[in-house]
Amino acid sequence: MSPVDGFADLNGLKVIFAAGPLWPNPANVFVIPDERGFSMIDVGSGGETGRDYLLNGLKHWGLQLRDLHTVVLSHAHPDHMGAIRYVLEEVHPLVLIHRLDMASALEPRHLNETFDIALAKDYWAISGRKEDYSNFDLFQFFDDFGCSMSAAESVEAIPEGEKVQLGGFSFEIVHTPGHSPGHISLFDRERGLLLAGDLVGNSPAWYTPTSGGLIGYLESLDRMESLEAQTIIPAHGGIIEDAANAIRKIRSKLLKRENFLYNALREGPKTFMELTEHLFPQSPILHFFPGCGITASHLIKMERDGIIQREEGQNGKYINC
Predict the structure, then answer these.
(1) Contact by Cβ (8 Å): 290, 298
(2) What is the extent of the structural domain holding 276?
């Protein structure tokens, strides 16, 4: 199956849509030609599928990598920047990213920190579950799903709150953490167009405490809502014409999870891992990652809001207040 699902040209913003709205499919890629060549917003994932996705998409638009001069990365995750290795084989563009994701872009091992892998290992060890994730390798996990990560050779910080001119588009840089510490969205106010990255789409993105957590995610949605965008193009999925409704839907899904945890605690005290299993009743790997980070994000917010509290002890259970 082709990794490319389709294309769209929105007054000079040329979109390459991935063949599926969910990870591990590559992120949608945005291409903006100008008199110097072209710029891109995100480059897609690593692995052979990601390479084909990028090159076939550019070929459709009659473009070649050698003419790429600028890359803006919404954040440093493999489905958005894994294909940078293929870019660097042909050309060395200016790469812009939020300062909080610069370290992960240059040395991807920092993603272990922003995905809170150590937190997941600690909770798993305390729980006494039989599956052993003490040697869990995040990058092997990415490779196994065909969504490999790679490093940029150099990056520059893109200033939040300011504008970046890409061809005929003037994008405001909006810092929208939750999924990644330096996740950004790009807003063209004149067109009412918001490139929302991973935060808005068919379902919520992963979120962990170090990446901003649920608190940061909800604040980012509020920030997006205040822009009063008309149209959203997410990193995964098709064009969304009712931007406000799409933002409300994601917020509702996040708060539904919180309500689910609250109702689970109404049945009686539960440990962290018991709550994670309630939230993600599928497979143990989801309980470990990204489940632990997501559960922790909810519990942090619920404790802050005075909704729940934790009993004392290393494996203290959570109870409703």
Answers:
(1) no
(2) 117-140+257-320
